[in-house]
Amino acid sequence: MFTGIVEECGTITAKEELVDAARFTVRGLTVTGDAGFGDSIAVNGVCLTVTDLTDDGEFAVDVMAETLRRSSLAGLGVGATVNLERAMRADGRFGGHIVQGHVDGVGEITAISPAENWTVVRIAIPEGLRRYIVEKGSITVDGVSLTVSAVGAEWFEISLIPTTLAHTNLGQAQVGNPVNLEVEVIAKYVERLTSTAAQAGNE
Asked: Is the dihedral of CA 7, 8, 9, 11 positive or negative?
C-alpha cells in the first residue's frame, strides 16, 4: 500500500519491449536506498515489483500487457521523468490517503491555469469513474495524492501548490498529457456493498 506522497522524481534509463510486456529500468537514488528484490515501488502511481537492482541507484521492473493497456506507462520512453514512492512502512506516517497502486483509468490534461500561489489543472474523466470523484475528495494523479477542487460533468480539477509542482512530474505537465488515475478504494467498496445489499433485498 502507498499514500500518494511522492518521495522523488526518477528517470527511465532503459526500456525493453517484450512479448506482451515491457521491462523498464528506472534511476531513483532515494527509493533504492533500502530497496530489495521483490519490493514494491509505485511508478507514476502504478505498483510494480523490483526485479533487479544496481549499485548506482537503478532498479528494473517488468510491466505486463494488462498494466500497459490500463495505464500511461506504455507511452513512456527513455528519459521520461516519473514519480516514485516506496510501499508504506507499517510504522510510517500516513501523509496522503489509501493508495493501492492499481490504476482505474487514464485521464487527459485539458487545461492548465497558473495563478499567483498555485496552478489549477483540469483533467478529463475517463468513462466509468465520474461517480467516484467528488469535490474535496481524494484522488491519485500519476501517484500523487491530491484533493479534488472542482468537478464537472466530464472533468475534475486539482489545485497544485508550488511544492507539488517542484517535487513531482506534474510541474512538467502539459495540455494533452495522459495521467494515471486511481480513485478512493473506499468508494468502490461502499458501492459494491450497497449494490449487493440492494440485490439481496430484492430477492
From this structure: negative
| HEC string for 132-182 | HCCCCCEEEECCEEEEEEEECCCEEEEEECHHHHHHCHHHHCCCCCEEEEE
Q: Is the pTM of this model over 0.90?
A: yes
Polymer length in residues for the chain: 203
Residue 53's H or E segment, with its range, is strand 46-53
Cα–Cα distance measured from residue 195 to residue 162, given in angstroms and rounded to the nearest whole number: 41
Q: List, for residues 105-139, the tens digit of each pLDDT value.
A: 999 999 999 988 999 999 999 989 999 999 999 99
Q: Is 107 helix (H, G, I), strand (E, B) or coil?
A: strand
pLDDT at 201: 60
| Measured CA angle at 158 (ends 157, 162), to 5 deg | 145
- Single-letter residue type at 27: R
Nearest by Cα to 42 from 61, 57, 16: 61
User: Given the DSSP bridges, would you call strands 119-124 and 58-64 parallel, antiparallel or unpaired?
Assistant: unpaired
Bridge partners of 144, per DSSP, are: 141
Spatial distance between the Cα atoms of 70 and 45, rounded to a whole number of angstroms: 12
